[in-house]
Write a structure and sequence with these properties.
The complex is a heterodimer of chains A (about 375) and B (about 60). Chain A is an alpha/beta fold and about 375 residues long. Chain A contains 12 helices and 12 strands. In chain A, strand 8, helix 6 and strand 9 form a beta-alpha-beta unit. The relative contact order of chain A is 0.15. Chain B has 2 helices and no strands. Classes of the chains: A alpha/beta (about 375), B mainly alpha (about 60). Chain B: InterPro entries: AmcA_3a (IPR049908).
């Protein structure tokens, strides 16, 4: 980890280091075993979720050729994402996982509606780590619906019940569309009861086919995060991603070590589409086309090794994104906390990659940190 | 911009007395969750070296 900030005469650091260029080896890849999802959530960004386009095994074999080497050298993960990855079926997912060495961590991000005893046995046998998408108690899950528009909560709850019955640990991702006071404590209490060990809270983002505006009153967002901090503090059993990162940064500022928090380079986080197309940095860009940027793909693993594609990744829109990271570094006081706006948020909010502050930055970074500070001032 | 950064850092430093107990509570909570530094869980996050959590639950560009 680099010590990225030079110390000035007054003891203050000059500029924030890290996040310069793309790493040649990712920490994980996101794989799309099928484009199909059996749900039709209101805020979903995926363009092809009604179609069942399945990943050929040859795509998994091509990715595994590099992933197995990377996993031998350090921690490396495959995240089976979607669509709904379980909609590919156990037989196909088994075939897709087969080329990966035992040292590759397998993760699945699922809506849980298809999870049953057989899937739990599948997860246990392969050491698959499970993360469930659920937005809180039933009345807060109204946007997670079937293709017929019916609420999916009872099926989500049944799937999570199967995980619990089998003693499988699981994480949860929660989308919040309207962050406001009075919501966070109820959400946290729900996830404590649910029994997840890790929780990520995603304020709804404007991206992909979801064009809903995501601007919110800053005071309401800060109050949401402050309330979540207070609720977590009362019973911190869950690893709450947003709180952990806030506290990690705040502690580092107090210790004067915040210059070393950001990674030296950006993780390229390749998303491998069902057809083998590789999209870097933001899974939300996969499957889209732009008159200027094209299909956002850096190549296809069926024609070039993934490692080779990463080695030549500074083409297309990626250099513009890296300019955007530098613009964030130069202009935003929160850069040392955040590391720069995400590619998909820039594109879907600004129409290009070299802009700086997005609504997502305000909702999920700036007002998060300010909300945690509000909490400690009041406590 | 460096002035803005300093102002943010100053506000954080000014809150040291209030932040310190919260940071200590978080440290103890991590230990209770077996996420402490040096924990021999073998599942060290690729991004952050003392988080025994799924690697894709990192801070930047995480899947939704």
């Amino acid at each position: 980890m680099e010590k990225g900030r030079a110390v000035c005469w007054n003891g203050r650091v000059a500029g924030v280091g890290g996040m310069r260029g793309l790493a040649s080896v990712p920490g994980y890849v996101v794989m799309q075993p099928t484009t199909l999802c059996n749900l039709d959530c209101v805020y979903c960004y995926l363009p092809l979720r009604a179609a069942d386009r399945r990943m050929p095994v040859a795509v998994a074999e091509a990715v595994a050729a590099d992933a197995n080497v990377w996993a031998a050298a350090g921690r490396f993960s495959v995240v089976w994402h979607g669509g709904e990855p379980l909609a590919a079926g156990r037989e196909h997912l088994t075939a897709l996982m087969a080329p990966f060495a035992a040292g590759v961590e397998q993760h699945v991000q699922t809506n849980a509606t298809l999870v049953d005893d057989a899937w739990c046995e599948f997860f246990a046998a392969r050491g698959v780590r499970v993360s469930v998408s659920v937005d809180g108690p039933e009345d807060l899950n109204g946007q997670r619906v079937s293709r017929a528009g019916r609420p999916a909560y009872d099926r989500i709850e049944r799937g999570i019940g199967a995980l619990r019955r089998h003693g499988l640990p699981y994480a949860a991702l929660c989308v919040v569309s309207d962050p406001r006071p009075g919501l966070a404590a109820r959400l946290y209490a729900y996830f404590l009861e649910l029994g997840c060990d890790t929780l990520g809270v995603n304020i709804e983002e404007r991206e992909g086919v979801n064009e809903r505006a995501n601007g919110h009153d800053a005071a309401a967002v800060r109050a949401f995060w402050a309330e979540l901090a207070a609720a977590w503090r009362a019973d911190p059993r869950i690893h709450l991603r947003e709180l952990e990162w806030s506290l990690r940064y705040l502690g580092a500022v107090l210790d004067g070590t915040d210059g070393g928090l950001l990674p030296r380079t950006l993780d390229p986080i390749p998303t491998i589409g069902y057809d083998g197309a590789v999209v870097l940095l933001s899974p939300e860009l996969a499957g889209f086309h732009d008159p200027v940027y094209g299909d956002f793909a850096s190549g296809n693993v069926l024609t070039s090794p993934l490692s080779a594609l990463l080695g030549s990744a500074s083409t297309g829109w990626v250099p513009e994104f890296l300019d955007g990271i530098e613009a964030c570094r130069a202009s935003c006081p929160y850069f040392g906390f955040c590391g720069g706006g995400h590619a998909a948020n820039r594109y879907f909010e600004h129409g290009r990659f070299d802009g700086t502050e997005t609504e997502h930055c305000r909702n999920s970074k700036i007002n998060l940190l300010e909300g945690v500070l509000d909490h400690v001032r009041r406590h | 911009m460096s002035d803005d950064t300093d102002r943010l850092a100053d506000r954080i430093l000014d809150a040291r007395a209030e932040l310190a107990p919260l940071l200590e509570e978080a440290r103890l909570a991590r230990l209770a969750r077996s996420e402490g530094p040096g924990t021999d869980g073998g599942a060290v996050c690729a991004w952050n070296h003392f988080e025994n959590i799924p690697t894709f639950f990192n801070w930047n560009n995480r899947p939704r």
